[in-house]
């Protein structure tokens, strides 16, 4: 009878560990996705600023060339 209680206790402990790992994995994935989105948004914003600056410089050159 003691063996079955020990086996059950080990099984429950293993199950709880796996549940905790699953929760931590989901949390880590959500953090990763949030960081990925933030980097993508920042990259897009910086790209738009760079393109606007380049367009302004090109327009400024055209004025001075004319």
The gist of it:
With 66 residues, the protein is mostly helical.
Give an overview in words.
There is one protein chain. The protein is mainly alpha-helical and 66 residues long. It has one domain. It is 97% helix and 0% strand.
- Helical coverage, percent range: over 70%
* Shape, principal axes of CA atoms: rod-shaped
C-alpha-based Rg, rounded: 28 Å
Strand content: under 5%
> Given the structure, what is the number of helices?
1
Uncertain spans: none
Structural class: mainly alpha
What are the key terms here?
66 residues; mainly alpha
Topology, element by element:
Blueprint: H1 2-65
